[in-house]
Amino acid sequence: MQLHYAYKISLLRHVSTLRSFRCSYVDECLLLRTSESFFVDQKLPTLSRTFLKAQAYTSILISAALNLLTSPMLHITSCSAQAPYREEFGSLSSDHYCPSNDQELQCEPRNSASATAMRSEWIECVRRARIVAVLALLLLVTFLLLGFRQWQAAHQPLFNDQSIAIHEVSAHVNPGFIFKFEPRSSQSALIEEGPAKPNGAVQTRGDASSEESDEMSNTSAGSDFASPATPLPPEIMSLKRLEAGLHNARISMRKIAFIEKNRTREKNGTRALRAREDQAKGYFPWGPIYKDASIFHQSYVEMEKRFKVFVYPDGQQPLVHNGPCKEIYSTEGRFIQELQDKNPFVTKDPFKAHAFFLPFSVSMMVSYLYKPNSRDMGPLLHFVKNYVELVGAKYPFWNRSEGADHFMLSCHDWGPHVSRAHPHLEKQAIRVLCNANSSEGFVPYKDASLPEINLVGGHIPAALGGLPVKERTFLAFFAGQDHGPVRPILYKYWEGQDDDIKVFHKLPADTNHTYQEFMKLSKFCLCPGGYEVNSPRIVEAIYNDCIPVIIADGFVLPFSDVLDWEAFSIRVSEKDIPNLKLILKAVSESKLKEMQERVRQARRHFLLNQPPQPYDLFHMILHSVWLRRLNIHLKYQ
C-alpha cells in the first residue's frame, strides 16, 4: 500500500512538472524529475526506491517521446492548412526538442529553403523521439521485471521446495466465545478487570509491547491487522497484535530468501572464512548441513525476538509438569522441566503467547496409569481427553483456534496413540513426537519430529567426538535387542557374517571394546528402527562422530525443516539391507571425511545443555514449533 501510494505521488509530480515546464532538454527533464531527495524522504527500502525511480523514468521518457512526436505534427498540420506559409517553425532550433508553450507558431510562405529546413528539423525530431521511445521501452521492461521480482519476493516460500514453507493457513477463531468470555475467580492470575469502559470490555493483564504496537501501526490499512473503525475487546486486539508480529516475521524471512536466491554466490573459501569470523562472535549457521543457512538464521533471530509460549498451570505432578530427565525418554522430561523454570520464551500472560503448551507427560502416564501387560491404553486416553476439555472450558484459547496454536510433546512410542484421545489434538494441534512415522498419521508440515536421546545417568557423555575416518577400524556397527520388524532382517544378513560390519544382539563377553568405543571405531553407525521408527542411536552416532545409517522407512527425521540430512547421513531402505555393504563401500574416502566433518558440525543441535545454549536441542525444538506457528494465521470471521 505504501509503495503504491508513493508511486502515485511521484508520477503525479513528474507529469505536472512536464506539463508546466515543457523542458527543452530531455536530460534536464530527467534530472529535475527524479530528485533523489523525494525517494529518500519517503524512507523506503533500496529495492522500493529503485522500483519507483524506474517507473518515474519510464513515465517521463514516454511523455517526452509523445511531445517530440506530436509537436512537429501539430505544426505541420496547422501550417499546411494556411496560405501563404510562414517561415518560422516555432522556437524549434538545434538546441531544442520541442517548442515552448508561450510562443505561437507563425507560418511564413513556404519556399524550398524553409521547406528543407522544416523537413530536416522534422527528421531530426523524429529520430530523437525514436531514441527516447526505445529508452522508454527498455525502462518499461526493467520496471516490469522489478515489479515481478518484488511480487516474487512477497510470495517466496521460506524453505524452498525441499522443506516446510510458510503456508499461512487461515484458522478462523470463534468470536462468540471470546466475546462471552468472563474472568472467573480461578482465572484471576490471567485476567484482571480494569476500569469501566464504554463497551464493557475486559482489561487484559499487561499491554502489548511497544514493538508490537509499532508493527500494528506500520501494517498497511488494507491488511487483516489494520485497526478497526470501532473499538474491539482487548482479547481480540491482543491477538491482532500477535498476528501482526508474525506477519512481519514472515516478511522478514521471505526478504532474506529473495536476497539469497538472487545474489551472486561467493566462492566456498570466502564463505567459509566469513562463517568462521561469525562464529568468533557467536554461532552463525553455515554450510551444506542446512537447506538454507541464511533463512534458518533469520528465522531463529525472529524466534528469539518474538516467540512466547504459555504453559498451562493446571494439573498436578507426576503426570503433569514433570517428566523423566534421564535414560531413554530424557528429551521429554528435560523440555517440560525447562519450561517450568524462568525461561525467556515463557510468558505468564496468555494473551501475549503465540503458542500454548500442554505439559502432560506420556512417559509418566505409562508409569503411573498403565497396567503392565494389559494392553489397555484407556486410562491414558481418558486422562488426556479430560485435560484438554479442562483447559478448553477454563480458558478461551483452545476453543478460539480449535487447538491449532497448541502443542504437546512426547518421546514415548505411544505419543501418537495418546493424541487420538481428542480429535482436535490429533488433527489440529502441533504434535512434537519422537515416533514421527509418516505412515501412521504424522503430518510433517503440522507436526514436528523430536530426536530420542538416551542419557545414561542423566548426563551427556563427557567424551564427545572420535577418531578421524581413516583411523577407524570397522566399516559399520550395531548392537541392540530384537525389537520390531527391521532388526531381524539385519541380524539375518549381517550378524557374524562379515568382519567389516559388526552386528550384535548383545556385545560379546570376550570383546575388548565398550558400546561407545565400537561407535568411535566405526565409520558408519547403523540406526534401524525398533518397535517404532525412531532410535536413540542416531544421536549416539552424532555424539561419536560416526556417520548415521538410517534404516527406517517412513521416519521423518528431526529438524528436517532446516537440516539437510543427506549431507551428513546415509539413508538405506529396509528392502536394501542385503546390499548394505555395497552401499557403504561405494562412499569414497574423501566423501567420508567430508560427511564426518558435517556430523561434527551438526552435533550442537542435539546437545541437551543446562542451561540451554543458542541453537542447541531445546532451541531447535522451539524453532520447530515456531515454524509451524508461522503456518497458522488466526483470523476473526
From TrEMBL:
The keyword Signal does not apply. Residues 303-586 form the Exostosin GT47 domain. It comes from the Eukaryota. Keywords: Golgi apparatus, Membrane, Signal-anchor, Transmembrane, Transmembrane helix. The chain crosses the membrane at residues 129-148. It is a single-pass type II membrane protein. Residues 191-230 are annotated as: Disordered. GO terms for cellular component: Golgi membrane. The keyword Acyltransferase does not apply. It is found in: Golgi apparatus membrane. Pfam families: Exostosin_GT47. Its main location: Golgi. InterPro entries: Exostosin (IPR004263), Exostosin_GT47 (IPR040911). GO terms for molecular function: glycosyltransferase activity. Belongs to the glycosyltransferase 47 family. This is Exostosin GT47 domain-containing protein. It comes from Ceratopteris richardii (Triangle waterfern).
